[in-house]
Amino acid sequence: MTSPCIDIHSHFFPKNAPNFAAKFGESSGPWVTLHDHSDGTGMMMLGDKPFRPVHSALWDAQARIKELDANHVETQIICATPVMFAYDAPAEQAAYVASAYNDLALAMCADSSGRLRTLAQVPLQDSALACRELTRAMRAGCVGVQIGNHVGPREMDDEGIVAFLQHCVEENAAVLVHPWDMLGGERLKRWMSAWTVAMPAETQFGIMAMILGGAFDRLPAELRICFAHGGGGFPYLLGRLENAWHRRDIVRGISLHPPSHYLNRFSVDSAVFDPRALRLLVDTMGADHIMVGSDAPFPLGEEHIGDLVRNQPGLTEVHRQQVLTENARNFFRL
Fold this sequence. Notes:
Helix content: 25-40%
Shape: globular
Oligomer: single chain
Order of helices and strands: EHEEEHEHEHEHEHHEHEHEHH
């Protein structure tokens, strides 16, 4: 019998998203829209440019549930595609967008017989508005919040972002940090390198900012925060960072402890796609700090959700069940 799993990292986009360009003016945006091909497939558009080919599980709860059943997924947590964040829009616009998307995500979950749960999005460029929307969304039924790993030049140790994370603790809201707005420019336009190279780097930099920028030292241990894509390059390059922290004072920032001290302060998902990478992740983070994440239903997501963990050699059954279901239940209070 195949063990069920809880997938904590998947995405959605509503079929009938509001026309934000009409509301805010044609010079605003660009906004994300969906071109439905009426055959179960579609194209996400960013303004007038194709962004990503998609299929109906992205917006149709019943199509999603069929995929969950086929993959033995007990519960799946959905969240915005980062291009929906609107962090570069005026804060009041981003707050309106977040509220609209959160309500549409909750509506999709309401059509899933309890199989889908959702994370909120917030206008992170304005911490007061972000806190307000988080409170509203949690009251409405969200199980946590997804944020990007930076807002322009403001990193995870920024005072406004730290204040928002403190509010997450007060609201008992779990946090998923997803890379976005990737570094690299023109050099990374070939081979989807923004996704395969820059995304892991962004995630690593987000974790480093929390550590070296002193955010973990300023925030209570009750903060439940998870970084997507297995923590990006962080687990593999921890030794390099640790060595630098001990040997060069300019590396240490304002952190009170070396990087390895903070490994129990955050979790990661399992979206690493290779048993060797997952082995390293377990050895570095511990099985109690890893949850299944698929990145479904996008083309670069795990094709058979949870199978990397189900088939991982060397995992005890206790650790396997922690990663498949138990950690997620505890982390998201499911």
